[in-house]
Amino acid sequence: MNKAEQIELLDDLLHDLGKYIAFPLNMLPSEPDGPMFQDAVEHALNQTRVGAQGSQSAKSIWANFLNEAGNAFDKNDCWQPMHDAVEAALAWGAHLGKPTLFISRKQVTDDIKAVSAAIRRLRDQING
Amino acid sequence: MAEKPRLFLVDDGVHYANTIAQHMPEYELVQVTADRSRAADGIEAIDYLNTSQQHVDLVLLDMRFDVSEDRLLPLPEATSLRRQRRYQGIAILRRLKAEFGHLPVVVLTSLADLSVAEIAVELQSLSLTYMLNGDDLDSLRIRIHEALVDAERLPEENGIFWGRDQAFRALRRRMAILARGRLPIVLEGETGTGKSYLAEHYIHERSGRTGRFVTVDLSTLPSNLISAHLFGAVKGAYTGAVSDRKGVFEIAAGGTVFIDEIQNIPLETQKQLLTVLQNQVVQPLGSNRDIPVDVKVIVASNEDLGSAVRDGRFRSDLYMRLSPATRVVLPPLRDRVSDLPFLARRLTERAGFEPDVFPFRVQLNRSLGLPEDSPVQLSLPDDKAAKEAGIRLVLPAPSWRRLQRHKWSGNIRELSMVLHNLVTFSIVGAVDALESGLSLSSRRLQVDSGLVNQLLAGGLEPALSDDKAAKRDPDVFAIKLKPGQSLNAVSVDIERQYFEQLFDQTNGSLDAMADRLLGDPARSRAIRLRLNQLGLSLRDLRRR
Prior knowledge:
Distance between the termini of chain A: 16 Å
Helix content of chain B: 40-55%
Strand order of the largest sheet of chain B: 2-1-3-4-5
Shape of chain A: elongated
Distance between the termini of chain B: 71 Å
Oligomer: heterodimer
Strand order of the largest sheet of chain A: 1-2
Structural class of chain A: mainly alpha
Number of helices of chain A: 6
Number of strands of chain A: 2
Order of helices and strands of chain A: HHEEHHHH
Number of strands of chain B: 17
């Protein structure tokens, strides 16, 4: 995969995953109640992209990306941090429906919002 | 209760629709289909806006559209299907601006998300087009509110043509803020961009100051009198100072001093001005007395003062004191092309009320059975439904294209002169025809393409820049500008010189002048009328 193709792939990921995994949390009012927050996280992880192509979860967008990327990014310093950031965000899926989710809402929010920045760092590194 | 503003969402996904429905009850989303409050792609959006009778206040437009290829609007610069989808919002935006230019559009992306710089530049330059600062609820709220307020704001205010150009309208906000502050304001812009008018009728009026607005045009003052004019002088301070005189800083106490053409200020006077700005006192020439002054200072220049500093013509300490942070650069007309239709229409209407045109317009209105005060209006080629309120000047498409392509180095002042002449010749020509026994049944007067060409060819650009060219090219005339006159006086003076030279060039033949200017030698009467209006008598012209 050449540099231009790598950038294209990361731009898609930035949009599909980076933007939309954080979207429901970004659009919350400043003091959301428990059910509202739970609902936003559920949408962020399970209905990340909903459009003409149907509904896609964050997990499936990430899996598709890994499939397409192969080992194209392995040699980049920012790859592993990005990988970890996405996995950390996805891991909150196991807490859906549990009170821990709201108790840890700051950490949940930080982890989910960190995905976009991590993708952007890798993109910038490749772009030089 | 007022109706909620109606937002038209163009988005292939549901996220924004859900967000607005859930968190922004102050707005109503336009129902596009029975089960969707959004258009899913550009084709559906354009179809809806063309066919629906429903009112739309604002468009919210996504950038990326993951839709099938046959639902994409063409985007020539996108090299792959992937890119067609990623930047599909641009293709939709272009169609929206071309067909529904009055609608404000909030693009649902931030500049940081656009990896193609040229696209970001295009977006920023479009009128009534806004982008988000971030992907959060507040950014969305702020942009929607801002766009709706801007769209409602009248494009003209107190004689100032703000138009719809986003960059120019942003200056309004900036100037309104600067007007209330204590810092001086630097206005930069080409000649004819409206610096002095804005200084007086916008900044001064919003400054909250009750004192006078006093203008000093440094290009009209002998350099040895500038200091006395600005700061005052006592009797005997210089040859000819037969009595004490107040400087403009004193005269404008509590008000505003507008120093035009500041780049012409002599270096020794720059030091004095710096002292005044720093200490808020003036010392009249020949006096040791400090007079406290409290004025708002606005300076204007038609060149970049920064480059004057680099050239050593302007003191850097004065430049810094004038505060580059409060520099406002007025864009030239050629950078406000989206405003050209509005400006052309308004300046045409205004020309119909000018004293030299007014009686002919009234006469023509009467002859056509219109109320005497009906305005003159300009019909442009893309006008879909022209209102028949008065006399309409119909501009042919090639002439309109010519106006759009013109450089307008004299900016709005030049446009105003061209349209003034266009109105004058068209109205006087029609009156002339009526008086010759012809009957006019239509209120629509076709503008002569030849006249437009002549007016543009005789414009300021070549004449001002190359005196020798005037001798070589019969279409180029040398015009000498006299500084310090009012805009109207300058306009009349230029036209008078133009007619004088054309008179000489045609050996005094009014038929030949009519042929050159109107494309019809039989319309010499219109030329004679215009000469009279300009105060040029045939006897004097022939005697010269």
